[in-house]
Amino acid sequence: MCDRAPGLSRHFAFENLSLYDENLGKALQNNANEAFNKGLDNALTKRHFLWRGSDITQLLVEIAQENACRAGFEELIEAGLLGFSQRDALSTRPNAPAGLILTNPPYGERVLAKGADVPEDEAYERLFKAYGNLLKQEFQGWTAFLFSGDLEIRKTLGLAPKRKTPLFNGAIECRLFEFPLTAGAYRPRASAP
Question: Which residues contact 58 (CB under 8 A, 6 or more apart)?
Fold first, then answer.
């Protein structure tokens, strides 16, 4: 986003090596900063995107906003092009006719809602069936990218992925699923006899 180089503001260990050329390093840093400033100006002028982030936990929303500001995106927040809110994923609705959804839904112990009176497996299944239905019914024409440690989440969602990219979250084997979204509702697959 905005042509921001990864690690733009950080110090790298290789800068301590004796063969490191400080002048070259500063020139590269200046070039990266100029590219980022041009990218920000372009985004603020053309307004060709609208990013929204949310989480059910307010503390995580605040941390995300602080991180965006530390990364240099405060102007985008002030301009309304980048925003964060506390909300349940099931209350999310589209803000445009088409777009991208990037999500890392909970898996494991984070699934149980406060005060849930059902077993964890049932809570999980209910949540992701409802989320799959929401995506299909409300976000037709969008594409969802879902990162999960549950390698079979696509079945619970009732969605067919276009791609499944293997990735790791530490030692946890995960997948980045790409789902082109079309209209429909969850229909369980027939069981084998």
Answer: 86
Flag whether pLDDT at 113 surpasses 70: no
Reduced to 3 states (helix: H, G, I; strand: E, B; else coil), residue 140 is: coil
Rounded CA gap, 63 and 50, in Å?
20
Closest CA to 163 of 187, 179, 174: 179
The Cα–Cα gap between 70 and 33 comes to: 14
| Class of the CATH domain delimited by 96-193 | alpha beta
Q: Where are the domains of the chain?
A: 49-87, 96-193
**Pair of tokens at residue 7:** 């690690």
Q: Which residues pair with 84 in a beta bridge?
A: 53
CB 61 within 8 A of CB 85: yes
pTM of the entire structure? 0.76
With contact defined as beta carbons under 8 Å apart, do 104 and 148 qualify? yes
Closest CA to 85 of 62, 69, 118, 119: 62
In tens, the pLDDT along 70-110 reads 999 999 999 999 999 999 999 999 988 899 999 998 865 45
Query: What are the tens digits of pLDDT across the range 20-36?
Result: 999 999 999 999 999 99
- pLDDT computed for residue 13 by the predictor: 94
| Residues 134/94, Cβ–Cβ less than 8 Å | no
Helix (H) and strand (E) counts in the chain: 5, 6
Nearest-angstrom CA–CA distance, 186 and 157 = 7
